[in-house]
Amino acid sequence: MPRIRAQHVSKVFGRRSAEALRKIRQGADADELRRMGVTAAVADVSFEVNEGEIFVVMGLSGSGKSTLIRMLNGLLEPTAGSIEIDGVDITAMGGKELRRLRQEKVSMVFQHFALFPHRTVLENAAYALETRNVPKQERLAKAREFLNHVGLAGWEDRYPDQLSGGMQQRVGIARALSAETDILLMDEAFSALDPMIRREMQDLLLDLQGELGKTIVFITHDLNEAMRLGDRVAMLRHGRVMQIGTAEEILTDPANDYVAQFVADVDRTRVLTARSVMDKPIAVVDANGGPRAAVRVMREQQTSFAFVVTRDRRLAGVVFAEPAAKAVRAGRNTLDGLVEGGTHPVDPDTPVADLFLPCAESPLPVPVTDRNGKLIGVIPRVTLLAALGHMGNTGEMPVVREDTSPPEETTPRGVTADA
After folding, report:
1. 226, 247, 269: which is the final residue of a domain?
2. Domain total of the chain
3. Contact 218, 249 (CB under 8 A)
């Protein structure tokens, strides 16, 4: 079961919302709805977020992404549709239940940090636990643990105005993590940071995710950030989903002209991976086979080498034609002493940009192995060059006009003005 499921969710601002919903279901565009005097910030959106996934919602200003994330934790009520957290429809919850949801299941990291200026770093990080009446020593100990996770050990007694923007956002992340909710919502969490710090925060998030395995919904207007962080990406325009897929799926098979234009100039070498360009390994011999079998495979595949694998497909090395042929003439029955190392395999998730040097330095195709060392593919130099020829990118960000929709309404549901 998915951790989050949104089904036909719409958020319409204006008096003719019922009529607007009918128009939305009929495929009306933003201009048509605007002429009715309504704004559909989110229009018939459906998606699921799986456990341990980073699900990125990507869109320009006015695309509806901020409205959408506020509906995911009940700060805004949908005009239509349902949102389920762990199978429970939160649109049917009252204020008390929603507050418990935000305390126990769903944490949020905001764009502008939202730290208390009069509280220390440690007190800020412990705040989520304070709202749940966790005893002071316990919550401070937990806050220290997560401050250490985000690299802020030793800064516990400082105040927010003594920290840089990146450090303040680290406090915000520590606060969300210390709540120990399984679901983390991040609304443009890194957009206020300069590019270098932003990259550091992206690295931190990926490291934390590898360690903690949270379910994360990440909102961004930055395409490169979306492609780097997202296990899957949902692209929004005028409140509608244009496409949902992995970065590779969106780059290689855009759903429509808008998506194609958006991703036209993305640096694909930073998004596509070894898995995307590798070939199936064909010249492969069993480590328990003899030189005669190795020579036969190389003859059939018309190569002067073959990769050697163990019975469970783990890469053992490479054997070359000339020494194997000599071993056959000498009557040898094993590959002992013929298997050479130095193959330097790469991980299937290695970005294409990081494959240039290994492919240039190796006279052989670069082997691709999984985390268990099993050979799953090879990358000949010609294959990499052919893939680059199909990419044809400049590495610059695409030029797409921002939507001109009115600003999104963000009045929280179930939260008083002084909350």
Report:
1. 269
2. 2
3. no
